[in-house]
Design brief:
Elements: H1 11-16, E1 22-24, H2 33-41, E2 46-49, H3 58-68, E3 73-78, H4 86-101, E4 106-110, H5 115-123, E5 127-132, H6 135-144, E6 148-152, E7 158-159, H7 166-177, E8 182-185, H8 191-199, E9 204-207, H9 209-212, H10 221-229, E10 235-238, E11 250-253, H11 256-263, E12 278-283, E13 289-293, E14 305-306, H12 328-347
Parallel strand pairs: 1-9, 2-3, 3-4, 4-5, 5-6, 6-8, 8-9
Antiparallel strand pairs: 7-11, 10-11, 12-13, 12-14
Helix pairs in contact: 2-3, 2-12, 6-7, 8-12
C-alpha cells in the first residue's frame, strides 16, 4: 500500500534530487528550454522534447537548459521504429546517444523498445524512463532494465499508445513492477489528480496539457486559450493527424479540420478535405520556416502564420480543470501545495511548514 504520510516526498524525489515528483511532459518543440528550466527551478522535473532536432543539435539544446537552471531535467524522444528506414532508425539512436553523452538526469522514451538504450545510459549514469500504454509493455520495460515507467492513460492528450484509463492502468502497473517507480500520465491537471495518483501508488506524475497552458510553453496563444476554454468532452481520440507519423492515435480538441472531415463522411487518409494543401507556415526545430501540410503533426508555434483551427490542438481530458495560463513555476507550486494538503488530510496529519506556499 502507498505510504500516504510521505506526501509528495516519494523515493523518486530523492533519486532524482528534486522537491516534487511533477514532470512536464516532453511535448515536441513546444516543450523547450524555457519550460523545462522553469519547472525544474520550481522543484519539479522539466523535460525538453528533442525528437525534431538532429543529433548534432541536441548538445546545444541541452546547453540552453543548463544556462537557465542548475537543477536536474530530462530529454524526451519518440523511438517508434515501425515503417522506419534504416537511416531513420540510425538517426533516432544517435539522437538518444547524444543526450546520454551529455549526462542529463534522465532520458524519457515513448512508443518503442527501450532495451537498446539501457546499457549505454547506465554506463553514463543516466536514467532511462519509458512511457507505456499497457501492463504488458510495462512488464517488458521493467525486464529490459529501465529505471522508471510512466503509465499513460487513454485520457492523455497528444499521442496515446494505450486504451485503458489511467485509474485502471496505474495500480496494475504499480503492483506488477514494484519497487520500480511508476509515474502517472493522462487526465491529471490539478492537485486532486496528483494526490489521487500518489494514493494509488504512483511515485510521480507527468503532465502535458496543464503545462501547455503555461507562459513558457512555446505555442500560439490561441492554442493555449483553447485549452483553457475546453472541457474533456471537447477532446477526441482520433488518427486524423497522420502526416509525418502515421498509425499513431492521438487526442486533440475539436476544430475545423475535424469538423470538415466528419462532414465529408470521415473519408480515409488520401481522400480527406484539403488533402495535400498547406494550412500555413511554421518554424521547425532547425529554425527554418516551412509550409505545414494539412493533417501533419506538430505544435503551432507562437509565430504560426495560418488559421490555428486547422492545426492539431493536442489536449487531454484534463483541460476540464485547466482554467488559466500562468508561469510554469506557479503551476508546479500550486499542484504541489494542493496535492500535499489532500495527502496530509488523507493521512490524518497536519500540514507542515515544508509544504509549498
Amino acid at each position: 500500500m502507498p505510504d500516504m504520510a510521505q506526501g509528495l516526498r516519494t523515493p523518486l524525489c530523492r533519486d532524482l534530487g528534486i522537491e516534487y515528483p511533477i514532470f512536464s511532459a516532453g511535448m515536441g518543440t513546444g516543450a523547450g528550454p524555457d519550460l523545462a528550466a522553469a519547472v525544474s527551478n520550481a522543484g519539479g522535473f522539466g523535460v525538453i522534447g528533442a525528437s525534431a532536432f538532429l543529433p548534432d543539435a541536441i548538445p546545444g539544446l541541452i546547453a540552453q537548459v543548463r544556462d537557465r537552471t542548475p537543477r536536474p531535467f530530462g530529454v524526451n524522444f519518440i523511438i517508434d521504429e515501425r515503417d522506419s528506414s534504416d537511416e531513420d532508425k540510425a538517426i533516432t539512436r544517435q539522437q538518444v546517444s547524444a543526450a546520454i553523452t551529455e549526462r542529463v538526469a534522465a532520458v524519457i522514451l515513448f512508443w518503442g523498445d527501450p532495451a537498446p538504450y539501457v546499457e549505454e545510459a547506465h554506463r553514463h549514469g543516466v536514467r532511462i524512463i519509458i512511457q507505456v500504454g499497457s501492463l504488458d509493455e510495462a512488464k517488458a520495460a521493467a525486464a529490459a532494465g529501465v529505471d522508471a515507467v510512466i503509465a499513460q492513460g487513454v485520457e492523455a492528450g497528444g499521442h496515446v499508445e494505450g486504451t485503458t484509463s489511467i485509474w485502471t492502468l496505474l495500480p496494475a502497473v504499480v503492483e506488477a513492477i514494484t519497487p520500480r517507480p511508476v509515474l502517472a500520465s493522462g487526465g491529471i491537471g490539478d492537485g486532486a489528480g496528483v494526490a489521487r495518483a500518489i494514493g494509488l501508488g504512483a511515485q510521480g506524475v507527468s503532465l502535458g496539457t496543464r503545462f501547455v497552458a503555461s507562459d513558457e510553453f512555446s505555442a500560439h496563444p490561441a492554442y493555449k486559450q483553447r485549452i483553457v476554454e475546453g472541457t474533456a468532452s471537447d477532446t477526441v481520440l482520433n488518427e486524423l493527424y497522420d502526416v509525418w507519423w502515421p498509425n499513431a492515435p492521438h487526442r486533440t480538441l475539436r476544430n475545423k479540420t475535424l469538423a470538415e472531415w466528419e462532414a465529408a463522411g470521415r473519408p480515409p487518409s488520401g481522400n480527406r478535405p484539403g488533402e495535400g494543401t498547406s494550412i500555413g507556415r511554421r518554424r521547425i526545430g532547425s529554425g527554418d520556416i516551412v509550409d505545414w501540410p494539412r493533417y501533419a503533426i506538430g505544435v503551432a508555434p507562437p509565430d504560426f502564420d495560418g488559421d490555428i483551427e486547422y492545426a492539431p490542438l493536442w489536449a487531454g481530458e484534463s483541460c476540464s480543470v485547466v482554467n488559466d495560463i500562468k508561469p510554469a513555476g506557479d503551476i508546479v507550486r500550486d499542484l504541489a501545495r494542493d496535492a500535499d494538503a489532500i495527502l496530509a488530510t488523507a493521512a490524518g496529519m497536519p500540514e507542515t511548514e515544508s509544504r509549498p506556499s
